[in-house]
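Job type: complex structure
Entries:
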Amino acid sequence: MRFMYIVTSPQPHVGPTPELLQAMHKLADREIKAGRMLDNGGLMPLATGARVRIADNKLSVIDGPFVEAKEVIGGYAIFELRDKEEALAMGREFMQLHLDHMPGWEGTCEVRAFATP
Amino acid sequence: MTDAEIHRSILAVWRIEQPRLITGLSRMLRDVPLAEDVTQDALLAALEHWPKAGLPENPGAWLMATAKRRALDHLRRRRMLARKHEIVAHDMAREEQAMPDLDAALDDDIGDELLRLVFTACHPLLGREARAALALRMICGLTTQEIARAFLLPEATIAQRIVRAKRILSESGLGYETPRGEELSVRLASVLEVVYLVFNEGYTAARGDQWQRPQLCNEALRMGRVLTALAPQEAETHGLLALMELNASRIAARTDAAGDPVLLMDQDRSRWDQLQIGRGMRALASARQLGGGGGFYALQAAIVACHARASGPEDTDWRGIAGLYAQLSALVASPVIELNRAVAVGMAEGPAAALAIVDRIAEEPALQTYHLLGSVRGDLLFKLGRYTEARAALEAAAELAGNTREQELLRRRAAEAADAASQVILKF
């Protein structure tokens, strides 16, 4: 089963510490070598991005930075795992790294299964 | 949480930790079979203690500590057997201190250790089924029960197979293999063979009622990815991964709602997994870039790629496929490959040309129990209007088919041939 992990945080201006980056890199390396991680990426800050919105039947393009940024997506990963239990175990381990190497950080890792064709 | 749910959660956590566990222990002990033993011990301990005590805060550390303790017990026992008359207490204490705490270093070199695991599990000294069971256990972290279910064999059979394989490895001093360079390329063939065996078992189940077992395909795909990450310079690792990804991309479309097989030409292509096809194409490109486009797996992948590229059955490049089968035939003399080439030639040039190829190989001993010979022959005879012969060939093929779903498909086609034959008779 394929899963996507989406990490969001209400403190988007706080980037990962070098320790956290190193720990995440080690995990990524292990998971690629174990044949479980298919893809991953960290995203550039929202301020450098843009939004294409539809509201009131109108399409508009808005460049960052944005004022009302609540939870911002920081990065994602795509894994091939056996079942939801494994996906949750992996998610826990990933978030534990944040607890260990970036105390005080708050955020969410959303775990979503891919819809099958 | 029910007992079953707890059991599943524990297994899930264990599987996440398993690669790190077994590679770390293997390096520490310089003994893969022993590392495998104590990894399993740790799993059993977790299954026993965690339901009552709850999941530990750091499951990885708990499992590693448990495994190390077991390993120490085992080493002590070995030492006691070696020194039959003396128990030197301070030696054992010294050993306990000397057992390095390599937890920090473990993450750095997982690649090397995984490679060692793979090559040890797939040692050519072991039989193919033994290699497959060991590989699924050590690299994919499957339990004995899961492996048994996957191969539709009794758990005891698989357990025995694994025990015997580990014993063979230990006794021949092959418990810690590190093939490098040219030896690696040569030994790789026995590894790829195992991965392909596992994939095919899931892809076209030899026995049983389910026509395919996707989970096995996923395990094989995982091993394939592991190999491309560990041995990226070997073209055939990419070739095999390409072949598996491209074949697996059709899994959702290969069975209908009733679970009956759907032939490739009849499949709903909107159900082909395009992301998987993309990965397969990239892997094939990697194989070619490394100069391995003419390899055994790369050629097969190229053939499947021809199908994957066609948006509809009428767009299939049959001449291309026939040419690729010809290359494959030149590489490996196999009547099965010739049979497949015949099918492609039939589509490109017509059933008569194909039947000529099939008739030339029909007497090959290897094909006498191969149900697809009769299936292909019957299909070609049908297209040539030789309905009675077609029916006979298809019925004989149905008898040989090991999978009930395939049997049913063949019997249905035989009945169609019978209908067609009777209609011809009625015309007169």
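Summary: Chain A has one domain: 2-113. Residues 12 and 72 of chain A are 6 Å apart (CA to CA).
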